Amino acid sequence: MGKLALHWQIIIGMVLGGIFGYIMTQIGGENFTADWIKPIGKIFINLLKLIAIPLIVASLIKGISDLQDISKFKTIGLRTILLYIMSTVIAITIGLLVVNIVNPGSSISPELMAEISGTYGEKASVKISSAGSAANRGPLQFLVDMVPDNFFKAASSNGSMLQVIFFVIFFGISLLLIKPEQSRPVKAFFDGLNEVVLKMVDLIMLMAPIAVFALIASLITEISNPEIFVALGKYALTVVAGLVIMVAIYLIIIKVRIGYGPVFFLSKFSPAQLLAFSTSSSAATLPVTMERVEEHLGVDQEVSSFVLPVGATVNMDGTSLYQAVAAVFICQVTGFELGLGDQLTIILTATLASIGSAAVPGAGMIMLVIVLEALGLPAESLAIGIALIFAVDRPLDMCRTVINVTGDATVSMLVAKSVGKISEPTPKNWDDHYGK
Ligand code: ASP
Q: pLDDT 10s digit of each residue in the chain, 436 long?
């Protein structure tokens, strides 16, 4: 695979993984795949997660300490939050438009609904109870959650990414405020650390084509009931159509505001998108998203080191769009009428729910429960609805995660552009020291 661009290598890995997985389901090789193939994918995801926290720490400290003055940080911060909220609201609005036009709920007969929700009822109730604990929280709890009481505890869990970001920003700003002769060695250390961690990303990416092969192959062998995909096809296609529209909007914005054409942008950023698709986790993809945006799209680290880790946790355009479609779809099939006010409730709650969703597989579905509860959907309809969409959640999760990372990258470019921090990309060839 010597000269082939990385994204092609990954695509080939995915296609071969799909074919291999299919063959395994035909010859009864599911256990073989689980024992011998799946672990390769798992190791890869573990490696990516392993470097997520060191990468955030090193690059955010470097990013902030490179800033000449703190007021710039305030501008970057405010614009980031504003653009994240705007892109989320746009995504939800698109979701609502598409689902109201297509009306996928009409394709589900009561018998089919009973059958599917019977099969997945138990799994759905796990999701619903996880949502219960997330919903019973005070209005300021999210702020409390952001401030860790112990750095090491926060840094030892990828789920506490916002806490780590809080500490690092605090640390970075303090570093800017001390005398240069005192800050110099600290800054030099983190600059060096940053390079080391980025090199680790490069090394891990050497494994990407094989790892996605393993991830896709094991996913295919785990599909238990392919007929459901056909039954829920109209719903799934509605979500996908919304996501495709969202991509088109990003591409137009990127062309108009940054000047990168779609082919250029996709050829540079697609390795991150393909990994998002294969792993269903924006958190696991974060190291690659950062590497791609900085080295291949020319965003200055001062911007990307803040915008991207925050985005991975709070900005999920694909997830919020999916939540809007799924919420309306469930209301349609369970015969729960939605007025205009309810659609506005969806915009508000789905925005908050996508902020609250963890950047891991399946998180969006847990938060969907909160959206449905806010609409006042009765408990039993809620259980049926979640069970109904459960079977197709994983493939949709893969697709929405692609949009989640693309949204983060788009916002990082827009913010960078607005503060003059985007320049000609200078890729350090990711495998330049390792021969062909
Ligand atoms: N898997 C998504 C992500 O990590 C979250 C979700 O929609 O479930 O971005």
A: 456 888 899 999 999 999 999 999 999 999 999 999 999 999 999 998 898 889 889 988 988 888 777 788 889 999 999 999 999 999 999 999 999 999 998 877 777 777 776 666 667 777 776 666 665 666 677 788 889 999 999 888 777 878 998 999 899 889 988 999 999 999 999 999 988 988 898 899 899 999 999 999 998 898 766 677 777 889 999 999 999 999 999 999 999 999 999 999 999 999 999 999 999 999 999 999 999 999 999 999 989 999 999 999 889 999 999 999 999 999 998 888 898 899 999 999 989 888 877 778 888 888 898 889 889 998 888 888 888 888 788 899 999 999 999 999 999 999 999 999 998 887 665 554 443 3
> Is residue 392 within 8 Å of 229, Cβ to Cβ?
yes
**Ligand 1 and 92: CB distance under 6 A:** no
Give the nearest ligand 1 atom to 280 CA: 1
Q: Is 319 in the pocket of ligand 1 (CB under 6 A)?
A: yes
CA atoms of 171 and 179, how far apart (whole Å): 14
* 381 vs 374: CA distance, rounded Å: 14
* Best residue for ligand 1 mutational test, from 282, 322, 366, 403 (most atoms within 8 Å of Cβ): 282
* Contact 359 CB / ligand 1 (< 6 Å): yes
- Homologous superfamily (CATH) for 6-418: Sodium:dicarboxylate symporter (1.10.3860.10)
pTM, rounded to two decimals: 0.88
Q: Is 65 in the pocket of ligand 1 (CB under 6 A)?
A: no
DSSP H stretches of helix in 292-362? 301-314, 317-333, 340-356
385 lines ligand 1 (CB under 6 A): no
